[in-house]
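[step 3/7] fold_predict: job queued, chain A
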Amino acid sequence: MVLGRPGAGCSTLLKTLANQCGEYHAVEGEVFYDSFTPKEIRDSFRGDVTYCPEDDIHFPTLSVNQTLSFAVRNRTPATRPLGQTREEYVRDTTTRLMKVMGLYHLKNVLVGNAEVQGVSGGEKKRVSIAETLGSAGSLCVWDK
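[step 4/7] structure written:
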């Protein structure tokens, strides 16, 4: 947990730890992920280090179910439990995420944005959290 008042650099630190520092001029010091360098993570393990930003950015015209299904589908493991097909795994995992996050009743509602009516701000935050969980990263960094 990193705590600090606005402008203290908490988001900057979290982005650096999550290897999301492309917008920065330079990063001084050394960052390692066990024995891997940031370049190795970026080149070979990019999906294993996830960053959930403070701002909820989604495709506004996709439903909650479509948004979460997309995240899960992109990180479906090759070996799945109980011999599930890829589609069964995506459906079951997406449903489980929606139920755990209290979003199941909104599964067909658009996520929305300022121009497209959709879920509320708190619900959108839960969609972001569920989306990050659905991406099944090994290291997740949450900026809230």
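[step 5/7] annotate
The first strand starts at residue 49 and ends at 52.
DSSP finds five helices and two strands in the chain.
exit 0
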